[in-house]
Amino acid sequence: MSRTVPAQSATAWPRPGDARAIGATPALPLALIVLLGLGLRLYRLDAVSFWSDEAFTTHWIHKDLVFLWTRGLELETTPPLYYTLLKFWAWLAGSSDFAIRLFSALASTATIPLVFLLGRAFGRPATGLAAALLFALMPMQVFYAQEARAYALVPLFLATALLGLLRFTRAAMAAEWAEGWQGLPLFTGSAVLLIYSHATSVFTVAALDVCCAGLLLASAPGRRALPRLILANLGVAVLSLPQLWAILVQTGRHDLDWIQPPDLVSILNLANSLLVDPVTPQTAFRLSCILSALVLALLLASLAFLRPNRLTVAYLLGVPALFLVAVIGLSFKSPFVIPRILIWIAVPVCVLAGMALQPPVPRALRAALALAFVACIGVGLYGVYVRTPADKEDWRGLMAELMPQLGPQDIVAIGPGTTILPILHYSGGAFEGTGRQLWRWEPAPRNPDIYLPDTILPPLPVSTEALAAAAREGRRVRLLLREVDWLRNAPAALSAVPPPSLVNRSHARVVLVTW
Questions:
Q1: Res. 6 pLDDT band, cuts 50 70 90
Q2: Structural domain tally of the chain?
Q3: Are 96 and 214 contained in the same domain?
């Protein structure tokens, strides 16, 4: 007896979980890719000192949970989810530099199999493996996986949000709610986690919603599912309301005035940081531009052969494009766009690249794209492991040199644009709970400190003349500054009478001035 199988419409969406469309998970290759990614993220994890922002992290996680989610929510521009998770992690793993950074390394590693799932869902298992391998190797991901900051969480939650939205969209378009409705709660939860991981994720979630709504409006079954999407986003808005309020309160803060409005160089460096690494473009801008432009051009050329469907165009191209237009456009009025906020765009880029490295893209084009990625990864990993130690503030090395020489009568002052937190982190408790007075050099009026630990006496303002007078009286004066702070204020110090006896710039990005 023969059985008639109805033909699938050429425009039908792939069914969620369809083994023929998605394929089985190649466990061994995926496990090897994950181990490779973990190894890259653990290699030399604590070789570089905490810089100012990382030292702030170690300070902030010692605040109690009530503070983090109330007053701290308004004070700190990074939302409290990362600090909350890291607080519990530090309780389990310890608070060494390695342990604190390990949390980011593991979060980034956990994203690799999710990128595989996305690649498999948009293409086939080989697509997923290629996407996962690229994500595991991408220097920007390795760079921020080795920082005690929140950025490694953003691709993780973006991947889960996109997986949920992809499942929901396919189910809605095919009117198959029995198999796909679970995707919407996954998206809702992930969207909330995204917003509480980084403030700019508000634009990411909005871009995901716009693209999903556009897809749903394109068909009758999709339009019937639109109220469910709206309801889910009402839930996201309600749960995210405290963070949304904090974003409004923080608008125009003086501690964000270091971010400049976008220009051509800064826009090009968005791509350079994403595809090469965050450090290399600062010293090899032209090379970084050539490599990133080559990858983008080859990816665009591949689209002509891939002929991506509406879902691929919307989620892999539309979401990043909408995000970039929004954040760059708004930054002309109130600057906030910096390369690190694009870290999540690596997820759709890797999935799209995984598709471009498979047939029907011609072999020559695939080979050229693979070689372009190899070049970006090679240059970028060199930047991560070799250039980074010379680019990050070496407070660990500076304090290790200073502390054995520091006498009880020495005056310790901090530069006007230098945070005290890394100095405290590497001082071994010499200034905390001891009653020793620290000083804040103020060659010109400055904004008050926002973040000061309760365990120290607040630094008192001191002028250049007062520091020089103390030196004339025979007291040793130690002035600690970030390099950029020194370059901005060096004339004031060098014009003192007497001038400094030593300006120690032997440690990366930090300066020790001695009278």
A1: very low
A2: 2
A3: yes
